[in-house]
C-alpha cells in the first residue's frame, strides 16, 4: 500500500476500528516499517513514540488486533484499520481508549442474528427450528412471514405492548429467514430504503 509518510515527518495516524461492532478502539501511529509488518503478519504493529521502536499491540497482554482490512484516506496520509480484537484494547483494561464498551448497537445485533440464521441453514440440526424452516422451503417460510404479519396487525389493535413487541420480533426473525432463503442480505433492503429516501 502506497502511503505518504513524508508529509507528516515519517509517521501517520492509524485509526483502529472493530470490524464487527464498528466501534473506534484506539489511535496509534505507524511508520513505513510498522505498516509493512502489519500487512505481512496480519496483526497491528505501531511505531511507539515513547519507546522509539516498533510495538505490536498485544505483545505483552496477548490482546492482539487481528487485521481484517486496511484503508487509506483520500490524502494518503491516514489509515483506517479494521480489526478483530483479541481482548480489551486500552492499556487500562477498557474495551476502547475512550472508555466505551465495545458492543454493537441494538440494530447492529441483527448482524449476529443473520450469522446464526445462515449457520442454521448451512449446518442444519434436527433440534433447530430455523433449520426446519429451511428444510420446508421458500413457500413455507413465506407463509410463516404472512402469518406473523397478521398476528402483528392483530396485536397492534390491542394495548398490550409486550405481546406486540413479541409479534414484531417474530415477524422480523422470519423475514430474515426468508431473505436468507432467497440469497439476499438485509443490507440490500436497507440500500433500497436509502435510495428511496434520497429522492
From TrEMBL:
Gene3D superfamilies recorded: MazG-like (1.10.287.1080), Phosphoribosyl-AMP cyclohydrolase (3.10.20.810)
InterPro entries: His_synth_HisIE, HisE, PRib-ATP_PPHydrolase-like, PRib_AMP_CycHydrolase_dom, PRib_AMP_CycHydrolase_sf
Domain Phosphoribosyl-AMP cyclohydrolase: 26-98
Originating organism: Arcicella lustrica
Identification of the protein by name: Histidine biosynthesis bifunctional protein HisIE
Keywords assigned: Amino-acid biosynthesis, ATP-binding, Cytoplasm, Histidine biosynthesis, Hydrolase, Multifunctional enzyme, Nucleotide-binding
Enzyme class, spelled out: hydrolase
Stretch list, region Phosphoribosyl-ATP pyrophosphohydrolase: 110-199
Protein's cellular compartments: Cytoplasm
Keyword flag 4Fe-4S: no
Gene Ontology MF annotations: phosphoribosyl-AMP cyclohydrolase activity; phosphoribosyl-ATP diphosphatase activity
Pathway named in the protein's UniProt entry: Amino-acid biosynthesis; L-histidine biosynthesis; L-histidine from 5-phospho-alpha-D-ribose 1-diphosphate: step 2/9; Amino-acid biosynthesis; L-histidine biosynthesis; L-histidine from 5-phospho-alpha-D-ribose 1-diphosphate: step 3/9
Main subcellular location of this protein, as a coarse class: cytoplasm
Region Phosphoribosyl-AMP cyclohydrolase, residue ranges: 1-109
HAMAP family according to UniProt: HisE, HisIE
PANTHER family referenced in this protein's UniProt entry, alphabetically: HISTIDINE BIOSYNTHESIS BIFUNCTIONAL PROTEIN, HISTIDINE BIOSYNTHESIS BIFUNCTIONAL PROTEIN HISIE
Catalytic activity: 1-(5-phospho-beta-D-ribosyl)-ATP + H2O = 1-(5-phospho-beta-D-ribosyl)-5'-AMP + diphosphate + H(+); 1-(5-phospho-beta-D-ribosyl)-5'-AMP + H2O = 1-(5-phospho-beta-D-ribosyl)-5-[(5-phospho-beta-D-ribosylamino)methylideneamino]imidazole-4-carboxamide
Gene designation per UniProt: hisIE
E.C. number: 3.5.4.19, 3.6.1.31
Family to which this protein belongs: In the N-terminal section; belongs to the PRA-CH family.
